């Protein structure tokens, strides 16, 4: 899995240390209400895999950890399983292992209503991710070339879907303009999927891609995409994903205004290389560090965290300022 060579922009975001928070670590409550259920932590194990025997074991392990730690989980693209029944158990295992948890289905934004409904039904999903991956498709010799009619299709899916729909970028970041069009189509939850995490254009170029490494830097870094969308002040929930590798980055994203943070690649690598026990230990440490981050800002919960001042400088501030966004908004919290 190729990681982006570019930064996420979170190195330009600074939280303010509180030397006298008057809090205990046991006072920190990171619970979050999402899709009509309560999570113990605002963390989504994001779309990773499905469709192979190895993927079934990966999804089983991740579902167990999501259940034990009170996290949300999204499955990888279910497109293949919609056409091959033998592959469905690589996805259904997630609901079997986590019957009460928040699980998100995943199909392309160009999928038909029938495909979307089958994906939701397959895993008893609480929500449906529609993924947007135009640069990846264009880099693939066998990829799609026609993306017309997507907004109309999204609007149709929003109207007919039995569960909320999440618009999900896969690593190139949502702009204000794209979010406004999708908002008008009925989307009320966005997984911004910014640049800085897994680079699917670079992956395709390593395979037999058409971009000759010339677009490896394409996309909007995660912190910049998050800032753009937050500045719209729309009544939506945002999931910050794209290179969130550390708890500090996670706390920064939550402080900026994200409802959840999402991780995929770092979790998959630990699971594949070191096993489920190692990943469980890593998650325990990561969740502790999230709590510590809140305590060090003097925040008892996410609501208080998002009222704390923070400083945005460097390229992230330059980007947001160039886009007409006042970065002092966060400093004045």
Please, could you describe this protein's structure?
Helices cover 43% and strands 14% of the residues. It has 333 residues and is α/β, with parallel strands linked by helices. The chain has one domain: TIM Barrel. Helix 7 links the parallel strand 8 (165-169) and strand 9. Helix 1 (53-69) runs parallel beside helix 3 (89-97). It is globular, with a radius of gyration of 19 Å. The two termini are 38 Å apart. The model has no long low-confidence stretch (mean pLDDT 94).
- End-to-end gap: 38 Å
CATH architecture tag? Alpha-Beta Barrel
* Strand residue percentage: 5-15%
Mean pLDDT: 94
CATH topology: TIM Barrel
Number of strands: 12
Say which CATH homologous superfamily is assigned: Aldolase class I
* Amount of helix: 40-55%
The string of secondary-structure elements, in order, is EEEEHEHHEHEHHEHEHHEHEHHHEHH
Q: How large, in whole angstroms, is the Cα Rg?
A: 19 Å
Structural class: alpha/beta
């Amino acid at each position: 899995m190729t990681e982006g060579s570019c930064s996420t922009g979170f190195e330009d975001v600074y939280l303010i240390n509180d030397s006298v928070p008057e809090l205990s670590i046991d006072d920190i409550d990171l619970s979050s209400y999402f899709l009509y259920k309560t999570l113990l932590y605002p963390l989504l194990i994001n779309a990773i895999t499905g469709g192979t025997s190895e993927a079934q074991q990966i999804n089983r392990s991740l579902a167990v950890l999501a259940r034990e730690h009170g996290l949300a989980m999204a499955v990888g693209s279910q497109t293949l399983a919609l056409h091959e029944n033998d592959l469905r158990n690589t996805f259904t295992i997630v609901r079997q292992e986590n019957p009460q948890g928040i699980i998100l289905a995943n199909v392309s934004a160009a999928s038909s209503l029938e495909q979307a409904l089958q994906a939701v039904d397959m895993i008893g999903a609480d929500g449906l991710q529609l993924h947007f991956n135009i640069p990846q498709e264009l880099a693939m010799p066998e990829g799609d070339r026609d993306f017309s009619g997507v907004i109309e299709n999204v609007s149709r899916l929003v109207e007919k879907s039995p569960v909320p729909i999440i618009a999900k970028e896969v690593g190139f970041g949502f702009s204000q303009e794209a979010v406004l069009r999708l908002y008008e189509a009925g989307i009320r939850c966005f997984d911004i999927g910014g640049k800085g995490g897994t680079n699917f254009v670079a992956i395709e170029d390593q395979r037999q891609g058409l971009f000759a490494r010339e677009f490896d830097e394409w996309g909007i870094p995660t912190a910049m995409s998050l800032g753009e969308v937050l500045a719209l002040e729309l009544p939506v929930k945002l999931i910050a994903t794209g290179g969130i590798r550390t708890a500090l980055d996670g706390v920064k994203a939550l402080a900026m205004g994200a409802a959840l943070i999402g991780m995929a690649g770092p979790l998959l690598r630990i699971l594949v290389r070191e096993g489920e026990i190692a990943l469980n230990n890593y998650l325990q440490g990561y969740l502790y560090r999230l709590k510590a981050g809140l305590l060090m800002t003097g925040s008892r919960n996410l609501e208080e965290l998002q009222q704390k001042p923070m400083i945005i400088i460097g390229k992230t501030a330059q980007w947001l300022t160039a886009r007409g966004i006042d970065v002092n908004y966060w400093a004045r919290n």
